[in-house]
Design brief:
This protein has 6 domains: 4-64, Helix hairpin bin (Helix Hairpins, Orthogonal Bundle); 86-315, DNA ligase/mRNA capping enzyme (D-amino Acid Aminotransferase, Chain A, domain 1, 2-Layer Sandwich); 320-409, OB fold (Dihydrolipoamide Acetyltransferase, E2P) (Beta Barrel); 437-509, 5' to 3' exonuclease, C-terminal subdomain (DNA polymerase, domain 1); 512-582, 5' to 3' exonuclease, C-terminal subdomain (DNA polymerase, domain 1, Orthogonal Bundle); 603-672, Rossmann fold (3-Layer(aba) Sandwich), CATH 3.40.50.10190. 37% of the residues lie in helices and 19% in strands. The strands form 6 sheets. Strands 2-13-10-3-9 form a 5-stranded mixed beta sheet. A 5-stranded antiparallel beta sheet has the order 16-15-14-17-18. Strands 5-4-7-8 form a 4-stranded antiparallel beta sheet. It is globular. The chain binds 2-(butylsulfanyl)adenosine (IVH). Residues 83-85, 115, 117-118, 122, 138, 174, 226-227, 289, 308, 311, 313 line the site of 2-(butylsulfanyl)adenosine.
């Protein structure tokens, strides 16, 4: 027990702190601490107040539900207060809640309804004579903001209900932004240079509490209704589960993941199952809500303070946490990118110790204003790499300086000391040195990776060993590794060496698309590699491609085309490809006709619009048959394909006596050539 004077001082400072965070969260939609830390503060304050009840004042944040509403939207007085929920942070706390209920239920095991606790914004919808009349936020529980116009823009909010509905009633639910929508919104905001939302809940709140409802309308918000507030002149169902069914029948959207259970064991299982599965949900859930099903028992359990005793939020362990960002370090990527990442004071987030987090790029660091020495909010989401959400400004050290990647590195690649550079219009800095050891090693790793040549046994570690020991300067060297060399390596037994050599050998027959992807050409991902393989059928064809031809293929743009051309012009790369060919790695599509193709050596030029086939496709077919497609008529042109509204090429071809064929003749040639 803390002594009285001391307790008073701590309570007062805690209240100031909590009130400030309430304001940041509810009014400004920009929290500085994670939910878990906020819950921690409240818990601490509650405990002290419980120990010293004489110190409880009506204005203590423990006595309120939220923060004051924003006046500008207009105020709505709630007919019945919107309560908040008590929390259970552990199985033990759930059991304690359950035991209290059992006592009041005369020892009888009640039925429970389990629902997801969606992390969004609580709203109240009032329907009068079948029409949505008032939509409001929870506000402080008694008075909320009038957001009727905004809520009307959400498609899953019914604007009217069947005549059979009570003449006046209120439902409550959670408005939320699905994770996909949240990511998309933040991507758009990043593109526009706007500050990003920290999480889907802030984004939902920020979207709904807008004076201009057109902004709300542009955001993919959704709602799940989770209870009936009150209803006039109609008997309502006698259990929560039936009420939800009834609300569904009136057209409200009710979460299909809700379940009715007969005992607390099943409730625990529901929690455990969703704890595992929650990252696959389309929305963010921070726990489950357990509700006593029978209304009679609910009434008997009444409310204490602002929390009903008949329901509880059983929280999932936090996936956010705060810690100190010790340093921003830079790793060198495969293509030479300078990738900043955060080195953190280790912190446990949702049961996992986090020491590093992604920081994407310098622009992002600046946009979020993250500085070395800052206390930062860390978030672990569905993706494995934890993110730095943003800094806690109030805890910023006085001497924290804005981050500059260039300054941090003194303008030099941390691995090979070459001068780094930033291409115009890009956000990343690059190391220009293709021989940079970090890049070499990662190119080998990439070459052998799953979607590429898929060589089992060559991952991060093995690539590092092979390049460090000088056994593989580049990935083509993998095909000339010797048994004895490998046996000399630490912990390499005969069997593992044989397996490795076998895996390397088998990789020689991977499809062309994978091979192209494996080369690690900047901006060429798996999809682009697929397009290139289909179009060119061989590495030699791709290596000779001109820019115009490249950008005529599917989604390939100027940036990718330049990168491909630069790759094949590079002397070192040419040597690597020769080595690969000598090692008999497959560099063309097997079965694609090479050598004696029917249109071998024939040059085609297309003019005008083709009707039954796109020009791109026509050119691709010609090439697949060994012909070439050029853009200008020259003496070497064999055929001019004349489409609708031909251009000046037709006159030119005529004057040079070049053979002209129609679209249908072209198609016939293609067909007869056995395409
Ligand atoms: S029931 C008296 N059910 O959690 C019961 N609340 O602090 C009141 N929430 O602000 C709430 N999902 O916005 C309930 N399935 C659910 C919920 C849910 C999310 C939110 C609600 C409220 C907070 C409780």
């Amino acid at each position: 027990m803390t002594d009285m004077g001391e307790a008073k001082a701590i309570i007062e400072s805690l209240r100031v702190e909590v009130n400030r965070h309430n304001h940041l969260y509810h009014v400004l939609d920009s929290p500085e601490i994670s939910d878990a830390d906020y819950d921690g503060l409240i818990k601490q304050l509650r405990r002290l107040e419980e120990e010293h009840p004489q110190l409880i004042t009506p204005d203590s944040p423990t006595q309120r539900v939220g923060a004051a509403p924003v006046e500008a939207l207009g105020i709505v007085e709630h007919k019945l207060p919107l309560l908040s929920l008590g929390n259970a942070f552990s199985g033990g706390e759930l059991t304690a809640w359950y035991n209290r209920i059992i006592k009041l239920a005369d020892g009888q095991e009640p039925d429970f309804v389990c629902e997801h606790k969606i992390d969004g914004l609580a709203v109240s919808l009032t329907y009068i004579d079948g029409k949505l009349t008032i939509g409001a936020t929870r506000g402080d529980g008694f008075r909320g903001e009038n957001i009727t116009r905004n809520l009307r823009t959400i498609r899953s909010v019914p604007l009217s209900v069947p005549k059979t509905a009570p003449s006046r009633f209120e439902v409550r639910g959670e408005v939320f932004l699905p994770i996909d929508g949240f990511k998309k919104l933040n991507r758009e905001r990043a593109d526009e240079g706007l500050p990003l939302f920290a999480n889907p809940r802030n984004a939902a709140a920020g979207s709904v509490r807008q004076l201009d409802q057109r902004i709300t309308a542009g955001r993919p918000l959704d709602i799940y209704i989770y209870m009936l507030g009150y209803a006039e002149d109609k008997a309502i169902p006698s259990s929560h589960w039936e009420t939800l069914e009834y609300l569904k029948s009136l057209g409200f959207k009710v979460n299909p993941n809700n379940r009715l259970f007969g005992n607390i064991k099943q409730v625990e299982k529901y929690y455990d199952d969703w704890l595992e599965e929650r990252e696959g949900l389309p929305y963010e859930a921070d726990g489950i809500v357990v509700k006593v099903n029978e209304m009679k028992l609910q009434e008997k359990l009444r409310d204490i303070g602002h929390e009903p005793r008949w329901a509880i939020a059983y929280k999932f362990p936090a996936v956010q946490g705060n810690t100190v960002l010790k340093e921003i370090k830079i790793s060198v990527g495969r293509t030479g990118t300078m990738n900043p990442y955060a080195v953190l004071e280790p912190v446990s987030v949702g049961g996992v110790t986090i020491k590093h987090a992604a920081l994407h790029n310098e622009d992002d660091i600046r946009r979020k204003d993250i500085r070395e020495g800052d206390t930062v909010i860390i978030q672990r989401a569905g993706d494995v790499i934890p993110q730095v959400v943003g800094p806690v400004l109030s805890k910023r050290p006085k001497d924290a300086k804005e981050f500059s990647l260039y300054k941090k590195l003194d303008g030099k690649c941390p691995e090979c000391r070459f001068d780094i550079f930033k291409p115009e219009g890009e956000v990343m800095y690059y190391c220009p040195n293709a021989a940079c050891p970090a890049q070499r090693q990662q190119r080998i790793e990439h070459f052998a990776s799953r979607g590429a040549m898929d060589i089992r046994g060559i991952g991060e570690k093995m690539s590092a060993i092979l390049s460090r020991e000088g056994l593989a300067g580049d990935f083509a060297d993998l095909y000339s590794l010797k048994r004895e060399e490998l046996l000399n390596l630490d912990r390499m037994e005969e069997k593992s060496v044989d397996n490795l050599l076998d895996a390397i050998d088998r990789s020689k027959k991977r499809p062309l698309a994978r091979f192209i992807y494996a080369l690690g050409i900047r901006h060429v991902g798996e999809e682009t590699a697929e397009l290139l393989a289909k179009h060119f059928n061989s590495i030699d064809g791709l290596a000779e491609a001109l820019k115009g031809e490249l950008i005529s293929i599917g989604t390939i743009g100027s940036k990718i085309a330049d990168s491909i051309i630069a790759f094949f012009q590079n002397e070192e790369n040419k040597r690597i490809i020769e080595k690969l060919e000598t090692a008999e790695v497959l560099t063309k599509i097997e079965g694609a006709k090479t050598g004696e193709l029917p249109l071998e050596g024939k040059e085609f030029v297309v003019t005008g619009r083709l009707d039954s086939i796109s020009r791109q496709e026509a050119e691709a077919r010609i090439k697949a048959l060994g012909g070439s497609a050029k853009s200008d008529v020259t003496r070497k042109t064999d055929y001019l394909v004349v489409g609708a509204e031909p251009g000046s090429k037709l006159a030119r071809a005529r004057s040079m006596g070049i053979m002209q064929i129609s679209e249908s003749e072209l198609l016939r040639i293609i067909k007869e050539s056995g395409d």
